[in-house]
Every structure is written in structure tokens, then in C-alpha cells.
Design a protein that fits this description.
Elements: H1 17-36, E1 40-41, E2 47-49, H2 50-53, E3 67-68, H3 71-76, E4 82-84, H4 89-98, E5 107-116, E6 128-137, H5 145-161, E7 166-172, H6 173-182, H7 187-197, H8 200-203, H9 205-212, H10 221-231, H11 238-247, H12 253-271, E8 279-281, E9 295-301, E10 309-316, E11 330-336, H13 337-346
Length: 365
């Protein structure tokens, strides 16, 4: 008999018991903080209808979707009508639209489940991984207060994980899009520009500037220079963040709305008790998903910048609009727990547990 080699596909994380215990401890700590802030648990199926997932709202991740077909459908040559979820936010929008009349709003949910993406095989990137999400969904409207609550939860989670100093960086897409409009960037190109400036810390200023003035974007040198000056704004303290927002030139209505929201969120974050060393303004933060419309967040470990963002999210005002006529705005954050655990382990910030067993009773005879 020929043996089939025992192996796993690239892009999955399979742990031995001591590391699995450490990973479970991390998940338990995250879950405990979500519950402490009054979020309720839900689960959604790993498999959704393809037309639910592919609503042209997920941006670049929609090109990484795994389709699902039964053997019978394959034999018939049918088109795949099912797919594995690539995040937890789009299924949440479907969930809220489907159960709208059975939920109390604002609906506060947390969800900790696996998601699937066709990532290119490389070290530290996963095709199957846990996401830990919280979202608040409103009916007709949702106060910006909830935008400020998200950093309070982030602070609580990573304080308890004890993985070193971290900082939550904030921006607002209204501020960015209003600024791009004032420079004459066409509406259909604004999302491309957003995604490009979001790569500033990874690619560097020269590379981003060259892309903005290249054939794909076609921006003038003057427009690119103004965009680069804008997105390089960072703050060093709470007062500095407010001062830098005030120092920005007057803009159009969308720009001013974004500026007002950011200032209110900053003041409320301080009111939530988050130390000002743990949050800052970063006007290059945009996030790659199309559905974000307002506040956006990224969280970084200050002593390990090579790890990148360990928690991100933002405000979305029309995600559920594909499934219901009701207006259900929301705001949320997501922790990629599998990738975070792998990165923390590689950086030597997490140790493996010994055992979950506390007492062993032996039988000598």
C-alpha cells in the first residue's frame, strides 16, 4: 500500500498543545474584554451565497475569495453559488438585514471565528485564520460616540495582553476625500488614491509620490506634493492632534464634516480614559476596504513596527444597503488573531503554556 504523505496546505496554522493553550488564552482574554464592554456573541456560517459576499464592497479582498462547489455541481459544470467568507463584516451586514426585526438597536455584537482568503503563500500570511470582531450597528443613525468607544476597547484588550507599548492611529475618510475633491481628484479615482496613500509607511514617500504622478493616476506634481504633505501629518499628543486639525486649511463641506468628527472622537477617547500616549492622529491611515466612510483605525506595537497593524477597523454607513432598504450605519474593529499570535511568537513576546492540567492523580497499581 502506498502511503499518502501527511501534510497541511500552505497558509494554515496548526499548533502543538502547549502553543494551542497560549493561543486559547489570548482568545479568552480578547473575548473577556469584548464581554466587559457589553458586546453580545453571534456566529455566522463559514459558507455564504456568493452574491452576498461579492457585493463590490470588499475591495482587494474580493479577489481572494474561495468558491465552494459540491462534487455533484462540479460534475454538472455549474457555476459556484457558494463561497467561504473572507471577513466577518460582510456576513454581519447580511445577518443584521436578515434579522433586523428581531434585534435591539444599537446592536452590539462580537464574533470570533475563522475566515478564508486566497493569500499568496508567504511567511506570516494565512489562508485560514481567526478574526475577532466587534461592531455596533445603529438604526437610521449612529452617534459618533461609538467611533470613540472602539479605541477604548482596543486599549483594554492590548493592555491585558501585556505585549508592550502600542498606539491606536486614527483618521477620517471624509477628511481625506474632501481634501482630494478640493484638489480636483475625480470621484472614481479617489479610492485608488486612498489605497495608495494607505501604503505610505510600507512603501515610503518617494514610491507613493511616483505612483500618484504616474500614468495610472496622472496627478500633477503640485497636486501630488500637496497630498503627500497632507498624509504625512502625525500628532505627538492629544493637544497636538487637535492643533494639527485646526491648522489644516478650510475645505469643502465633506472635509469640514470629517474634521469635526475627528475632533469629537479625539475628545471622547480621552473621556473614555484612554491615555493620550496610546492614540494619535495619522492622516495616511485609509484602510483598503471600500465600505469605510468615516473614522478609521490602525493599532501598532511601538517597539515592533515591522509587525504592522495588529487591530484595525472603522465606520461604515451603507454596508447593509445591499440587503435592505433600512439605513443601518455601523462602526467596528477587527483583530486578526492567528496572524497576531504568529507575529508575537516570532518576536518572542509570547511563551508557550506547559499544560492545562493542574492536578494529576496517579494509579500505582
Amino acid at each position: 500500500m502506498t502511503l499518502t504523505p501527511a501534510r497541511t496546505m500552505p497558509g494554515v496554522l496548526e499548533l502543538l498543545p502547549p502553543e494551542q493553550i497560549a493561543f486559547q488564552d489570548m482568545l479568552d482574554s480578547i473575548r473577556g474584554n469584548f464581554q466587559r464592554f457589553g458586546f453580545l456573541p453571534i456566529e455566522t456560517p463559514a459558507i455564504e451565497f456568493s452574491d452576498i459576499l461579492l457585493t463590490k464592497q470588499g475591495g482587494e479582498t474580493e479577489r481572494q475569495v474561495y468558491f465552494v462547489q459540491s462534487t455533484g455541481a462540479l460534475e454538472q459544470g455549474g457555476q459556484p453559488e457558494l463561497a467561504l467568507r473572507f471577513d466577518l463584516t460582510v456576513p454581519l451586514a447580511r445577518y443584521v438585514a436578515e434579522h433586523e426585526h428581531d434585534l435591539n438597536f444599537p446592536f452590539r455584537r462580537y464574533q470570533m471565528q475563522r475566515v478564508y482568503r486566497g493569500e499568496r503563500a508567504q511567511r506570516g500570511r494565512f489562508r485560514e485564520f481567526y478574526q475577532c470582531d466587534i461592531d455596533v450597528i445603529g438604526k437610521d443613525s449612529l452617534s459618533v460616540r461609538y467611533d470613540a468607544e472602539m479605541p477604548a476597547v482596543i486599549h483594554s484588550v492590548f493592555r491585558d495582553l501585556r505585549i508592550g507599548p502600542f498606539q491606536i492611529q486614527l483618521n477620517n475618510r471624509k477628511l481625506m476625500r474632501g481634501y482630494f475633491e478640493s484638489l480636483g481628484v475625480a470621484a472614481d479615482r479617489q479610492m485608488l488614491v486612498l489605497r495608495e496613500v494607505d501604503k505610505l509607511d510600507k512603501r515610503g514617500a518617494d514610491a507613493v509620490r511616483a505612483t500618484l504622478t504616474g500614468a495610472q493616476f496622472g496627478l500633477s506634481d503640485a497636486a501630488a506634493a500637496r497630498i503627500m504633505a497632507f498624509v504625512e501629518v502625525r500628532s505627538a499628543s492629544h493637544a497636538d492632534a487637535l492643533a494639527r486639525l485646526d491648522a489644516l486649511e478650510a475645505g469643502n463641506e465633506l472635509f469640514e464634516q470629517g474634521r469635526a468628527e475627528l475632533k469629537e472622537v479625539l475628545e471622547l477617547i480621552r473621556a473614555f480614559g484612554v491615555p493620550e500616549s496610546h492614540y494619535a492622529l495619522n492622516l495616511s491611515i485609509a484602510r483598503g476596504l471600500d465600505y469605510y466612510t468615516g473614522t478609521v483605525y490602525e493599532t501598532h506595537l511601538l517597539e515592533h513596527p515591522q509587525i504592522g497593524s495588529i487591530c484595525s477597523g472603522g465606520r461604515y454607513d451603507s454596508l447593509a444597503g445591499h440587503y435592505t432598504k433600512s439605513h443601518l450605519p455601523g462602526v467596528g474593529i477587527s483583530i486578526g488573531a492567528t496572524r497576531l499570535f504568529w507575529q508575537l511568537r516570532e518576536a518572542g513576546l509570547l511563551g508557550a503554556a506547559i499544560s492545562t492540567v493542574q492536578v494529576l492523580v496517579t494509579m500505582m497499581d
